[in-house]
């Protein structure tokens, strides 16, 4: 049952990541990987918030492991960073890694704090 819940969450999270990237690229262009940054930061904050607030293991499997796991993407971060390096854009590559790590950790801390405010 848990596997099905993870798969169901991922079936929503992965298209959400793809669509977010399409929309962001439409408005911001593809010079920098803004879509990946957005899904990684939002997904990190949401995942931590849900881990603290959701106590049911089934809901955690669906929302955290499935949805947030498929929404966020380390592989795309790696690929896009390597493409920046390959095109000689080292500073952009360093910025990309730094922004994803700092943004994800910052969003995680914010999600943690908000969850504790909500749960008391």
Automatic annotation (TrEMBL):
Keyword Ion transport: yes
Location of the protein in the cell: Cell membrane
Chemical reaction(s) catalysed: fluoride(in) = fluoride(out)
GO biological process: cellular detoxification of fluoride
Name of a matching Pfam family: CRCB
Swiss-Prot/TrEMBL keywords: Cell membrane, Ion channel, Ion transport, Membrane, Metal-binding, Sodium, Transmembrane, Transmembrane helix, Transport
Stated regulation of activity: Na(+) is not transported, but it plays an essential structural role and its presence is essential for fluoride channel function.
Record's bilayer topology term: Multi-pass membrane protein
Primary localisation category: membrane
GO cellular component: plasma membrane
Signal peptide range: none
Residues passing through the membrane, by range: 32-52, 59-77, 97-118
InterPro entries the UniProt entry points to: FluC (IPR003691)
Entry's Gene Ontology molecular function annotations: fluoride channel activity; metal ion binding
Binding site for Na(+): 69, 72
Job of this protein: Fluoride-specific ion channel. Important for reducing fluoride concentration in the cell, thus reducing its toxicity.
HAMAP family linked: FluC
Family: Belongs to the fluoride channel Fluc/FEX (TC 1.A.43) family.
Protein name: Fluoride-specific ion channel FluC
Source species of the chain: Glycomyces algeriensis
